[in-house]
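Hi team,

Filling in the usual template for the complex we talked about on Friday. All components are listed, including any nucleic acid strands or ligand strings, so the model treats them as one assembly.

SUBMITTER: L.P.
PURPOSE: interface mapping
COMPONENTS: two
RESIDUES: 662
SEQUENCES:
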Amino acid sequence: MYNFPDNGGHFGPFGGIYMAETLIPAVEQLRDEYLRLRDDPEFKAEFAYELKHYVGRPSPIYHAKNWSQRLGGAQIYLKREDLNHTGAHKINNAIGQALLARRMGKKRVIAETGAGMHGVASATVAARYGMECVVYMGAEDVQRQAPNVYRMKLLGAKVVPVESGSRTLKDACNEAIRDWVTNVENTFYIFGTAAGPHPYPMMVRDFQCIIGEEAKVQMPEMIGRQPDAVIACVGGGSNAIGIFHPYIEVPGVQLIGVEAGGHGIASGSHAAPLTSNSKIGVLHGNRVYLMQDDNGQIIETHSVSAGLDYPGVGPEHCWLKDLGRAQYVAINDDEAMQAFHDLCRFEGIIPALESSHALAHAAKIAPSMDKEQVLLVNLSGRGDKDINTVARLTGITL
Amino acid sequence: MNRIDQTFAALGARKALIPFITAGDPSPELTVPLLHALVAAGADILELGVPFSDPMADGPTIQRASERALKNGVSLRNVLEMVAQFRQQDSRTPVVLMGYGNPVEAMGWETFAQRCAEVGVDGVLTVDFPPEESHEAFTHLHRHNLAPIFLLAPTTPESRIRQVAQLARGYVYYVSLKGVTGAGNLDLQGIADKLPQLREHIRLPIGVGFGIRDADTALAVAKLCDGVVVGSRIVQEIENSTPDNVVAKVGALVSGLKQAVAQA
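RESULT (copied from the run log):
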């Protein structure tokens, strides 16, 4: 029976709590509070109500017939997290953590964001529950995700561009941690992915598991059985663990995580710690496979998608890789872009560039599979936020 | 007894001045001269920062020092070489390496501890490795008689103070404020209130750092504890100097701090 993490937040050799002392009591308090509430019927009912009436769950599963037919092999089904309120899976977790923050009496929430979807989700729930919200975002991401920056501001959040380091997601995490250590008494850190110090990897996973739990009911309703493979993109890995976890003990369902291959693994310019066989290291509160140089310095990553542009990955994905229960592959920028355009043209759906990585892998393996086989792709977010990036890469000025 | 214990024993009731600089800032060639200048100006223990790409517990001043050092190509291996070079002329002043865990993980704790002992490091503080995750580290540090230095914070509850009291050697580093290094919200009353609770469990000397900016704050803090750690203010002086005058300017600054601490 698969039952992770242990009491210390370890998934095998991964995970744990690696934080400066000032924050350890805060993290432990959060763990105790979450463990108390996760099985509390009132908390569960509150969370379920919000997911149904505010987010619009359950999200549908859609059979991408046109695209499947063109690919000429396996049938591709899409779990439509892009149809959630705010346009991505991130809202599931943001609501869970905001409800927790409210129970803990915290009036101020902070968040880091890469593509901006988690920032928007956090700003949204802060507006909904009447909390002050500060979002840290790498200065480079502020530029490439300008529409999301404005959305956060409309929702009443303060967006702080982070100029240090590589000016992307990891630096936004550093800055959010610095804010938290300074304001630990009144502030709740809404962490966006299934990584960081325990209990975040477990807690974010639990809040995102609604994706896989729904799919497990929906697929038999649609096709009379479970899919042959479940495919999801992996940056930190929250949408992937959300759809994978309920399937871990379902035999015959392959789990495939798709990392950002950037300009290609061989180029070194990517954000694929699992696929590139990176060494184990410690960053942002947990022990994970981590892109680093020989001296243990974190190296700069590259991906066309801001949400995947991160040197680490959640500890449970590291463990699933080592256990052999999930496989991890990489999709390059140009392959993701092709899938982005194809889904727009053949299905009338504009996918997020992050999710386009998962779509591209499905497109890669579908043609060599039987027409009766089924791939379930987690379409984790919509791509409206990416149109400026796509236009620029296509040589078009808006 | 390692050099840290000897130093505190020799100080008796007097308070230690513990300056911090980042190795390789402003340049690798100046680190050893700066360490000697700190000692000449009255430093009792030296904290030498190992640069890291993602210094989450540090404010902008020490972040920039880390960036400068990394731009200069300084690795943990180089830092250990600098300590070896420092030891050629100074066999007395304790050196504590302060930084984040990942560069040590990349080298391996066993190799790291062995190298530390060889070059004359006395204590090791890895900011993001709490006791719960440090079993492997302790095994190797203890084997080589290196002191694991721990941070305690205003938020640390009594149960954790007891835990650290059992594991710590050398001295314990109390973080004076809720925040990052170099922050401006030093809370003297808060320190005065917390120290008795720490002393109940901790027999080792207690150093206090974060937010100490000048002679006045150094004196006020020194009166409350056994050692005063000054980092960002010194790094700021390095940042505002030229390669020609940096050693003299840092020496002058630390002399002033020493005079203040000596009055406590």
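MY TAKE: The two ends of chain A are 53 Å apart (CA to CA). Chain A has 15 helices and 14 strands.

Thanks, L.
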